[in-house]
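Example record used in the benchmark description.
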Amino acid sequence: MLTDIITPKSVVFSDDLDFLIVPGTEGDIGILNNHSHLITSIRPGLIYGYKNEKIIKRYYLKEGIFEFSNNRATLLTEFAEEVEKIDRNELNKQISEAEKSNDQHKLKELQTKKNTIENQFYN
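Model output (structure tokens):
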């Protein structure tokens, strides 16, 4: 299935995948080729892209919309970052800065990101 992860700034990922796990608001959703048409909102979380029975990409996403139709998966999100490229020291620094500035919205967002990455099931 052709899979695109799109943010307002760019197409973050575009490739043909065999299997996809998406963080739906009601729970994770597994998508294979020929899945029925689906449109759903997504929660902050991890998306896993599989090819040849191996995870080839993992992204941390903010909220967004996911659509699957005609073997094409499209994920629209405000933000997507490849998990392997996330600098955990920088993330901890950003959390400390948000705590110091008492920016509760930013602090919650950063803590969600940190907890999601640290508690992932598939390493």
